Amino acid sequence: MATAIPRNTICLWYDGAALDAARFYAATFPDSTVGSVHLAPSDYPAGKQGDVLTVQFTVAGIPCIGLNGGDTFAHNEAFSFQIATDDQAETDRLWNAIVGNGGQESACGWCKDRWGVNWQITPRVLTEGMADPDPAVARRVFEAMMTMRRIDIATIEAARRGASA
Description:
This protein is an alpha/beta fold and 165 residues long. 30% of the residues lie in helices and 27% in strands. The protein has helices at residues 18-28, 88-99, 124-130, 135-145, 153-161, and strands spanning 10-14, 33-39, 52-59, 62-68, 80-85, 104-105, 110-112, 118-123.
């Protein structure tokens, strides 16, 4: 039975590693799965007949397709997945999974996986604090975040209260 094709799907370009990336995402993020794997019906510029051409997968409930298109295009920070976390343990688990699997840390809760896809691991308390109706609270939370790589929830909560962590 064929899998229904979603109306809107994010297509991510990989240099031969779409299936590896999809498997990593499915093992790392809740509500993530690997779906259909499609092999190239003939040779193409980045591969040969029978190579994995596309992989349908879901990341945190978002339908995606990984295309093994070669090294022509690279991911950049203009696109990222933002994953809302509920506590420090979840924040650390996701951050460490990405960075510890060949990824890179960036600033303000951003990191990049080994395939170049960018992620924002964002505790809900950070988003709530930056949206606080009191501009002084929002400013303190924002300024605290600007000093971080991985978000530290205790420091964000202290900034919301106007105290130091």
